[in-house]
Amino acid sequence: MSRRSIGIITAATAGIACAALIGGPAFADTPTPTPSPSASHAPKTLAQIQAAGAKATSDRETKLTAAIAKVNADKYLTSGDKSTILARLNNDLAGMKSSASAIAADTTTTQAAADLKKVYDSYRVYAVALPQARDASAADRLTGTTIPKLTKEQSTLADLLSGADKAKSTSALQSDLSDLTAQLATASHDASRVSAAALAVTPSSYDSNHSALSSAKSSLASARTAVKKAESDAKSVREAIKTKK
What is d(CA 39, CA 137) in angstroms, rounded to the nearest whole number? Predict the structure, then answer.
């Protein structure tokens, strides 16, 4: 193999390794929280409702504050998506602070229970805000970094097999290259749909349809699967070029 070929493949290997690392989500998945209490297990006294409200709002404030910090530090979110996500997370954070104060100041169980219900139903921090931010972040990393790096490697490998390493080309390697191209097209198409679909969901639309985020999640999963297959195709071609004599 020529020194030029070795250098190009080494650079491509480093790039794709970086792409695989960057392709992960901006922040870890948030564990599914305990749902709003059912009627039979709901707190009964004013003190119990206020204690439940303090915990519910505090837990959400902690998650939202952490998510805001991570979104602010995320270098791969598009400016538009970052602005939308931060506006929603900060709105929910303000809502939690306001709700905490309202519940603590309530003097009747009826009002306290109504304010506690709003914490669960009006904001949907766990069901909407955090998941949609996470999915949009992951999609932007795929479209902005991972897929472009893989696309560059695909071009590099194709050039080698049609140029400096043409003698090493086989039908199997050409098949891998073709599949790599197809997988990248799928990944790009599916990942490009995620952010808009995820960020279009609101607490009210979620209340009307608890599967409102499903299309975004499905597209993201499909894009990730395609990227994984593309990485495998690229690795097969890369290693074949390096080892064939």
Answer: 36
